[in-house]
Amino acid sequence: HTVTLNGLTAGTLYHYRVKSKDAAGNLAVSPDAVFTTAPPPDTTPPAVSITTPAANSSVSGTITVSATAADNVGVASVQFKLDDVNLGPEDTVAPYSLSWNTATVGNGLYALTAVARDAAGNTASAAVTVTVSNDLTPPVLSGATASALSVDTAAISWTTDELADSQVEYGLSTGYGSASVLDASRVTAHTVTLNGLTAGTLYHYRVKSKDAAGNLAVSPDAVFTTAPPPDTTPPAVSITAPAANSSVSGTITVSATATDNVSVVGVQFKLDNANLGAETTIPLYTFTWNTTTVANGTHTLTAVARDAAGNVAISAPVSVMAANGDVLPPSMPTGLTATAVSSSQIFLVWSPSTDNVGVVGYKIFRDGMQVATSSTSAYQDTGLSPVTTYKYTVAAFDAVGNTSAPSAPASATTLFKSAQGVVPASAGVTPSVTIAGAGPSTASRRSVSAASPFLPAGTRRCVTAA
């Protein structure tokens, strides 16, 4: 069964029930039910206004365009327009806004419009006029240079007349092919370090900087060359004189040849692994060696060559026989001590010297004058004056007369000279004594013995003579 009800009132709640009778006249009636007629058509448009940017304002860069919109039923969407051309898609969610990059249009006057639409299709619009005024001048680049060049890195530096970002394009040709990671921080002094470069290689590069308005500046092409690969090749060096296993004497010239893949900066000669003079830095590499400064016998000469990278090479050793007469003096005696043992004797002792052949004896010097020699490392000086200070040095000598440097000095003072007298025992006799050989008059005290009538016969006493 279907029955259409007409002439109802819009937006109104109605109660209803249905009735049906069969052919026999039996009637059926349903329970009560309700329905509401549709509301009346929505013919009221939304209300809309642009909140940003302000009317007649100047804009640049990327800005936010926003609007408010209201409707008696509900706003379905807001469409922004620029000079009647859609600016992005409809915004269906409040708050209604979009981001506009004003640099996508030229500078000048533009009309921004917001069109609000409700579900019934009613629309309303609002518009403002703005002036786009963007910076269209790119930065001025200057002073692009490459520095701090190593085998695999380079630092590229430049300046701009305004704040801008930094990037470098580089490669083996003007096609570049590689670029540094964009440094978005805006500065006026720029430095970008390039890594992973190849040693000893010519690179092309150019620098790029973009200001806040998006204006890009690009430098002309420039080049740099990375440092060569590290020098790991040592020099080659050999001794040319004297000949191996030769006999040498007196003063001779030791010489060597040295070459390197880059350059030799110095050759150090060595004798028995000890430096023989200073490093020689000027070819030909030679050194004058006085062979008498070493003991006779076999010695080993080597030459050590060094290049600027610090690589070193040691020549094959050359053995030579030093065959000089004995020209080396013994070592200087040490540990000299002087001890007075009486009024006329001083005993000297010291540590023995050494010699390349052998020490024969020692020269004894008293107060700077040689007074004796000794074949041992001790000597007793006699015949001295009492109470007198003497200074000694000793020097060692060998069989051919080579004499060492004198030892450090040692001094000693001879003792007082003593005298004794024995007075026979005699009761009541005034004691007296005769002092013979009492020494120089400068002595202030002398030890003598005198008999006393108050002591047993033969007793000795110490008295002081004025």
From TrEMBL:
InterPro entries found in the cross-reference section: FN3_dom, FN3_sf, Ig-like_fold, PAPs_N, Purple_acid_Pase-like_N, RTP_Phos/Ushers
Gene Ontology MF annotations: acid phosphatase activity; metal ion binding
CDD domains assigned: FN3 (cd00063)
GO CC, one annotated term: membrane
Membrane-spanning ranges: none
Residues in Fibronectin type-III domain copies: 1-40, 140-229, 332-417
Protein name (database record): Fibronectin type-III domain-containing protein
Organism: Candidatus Segetimicrobium genomatis
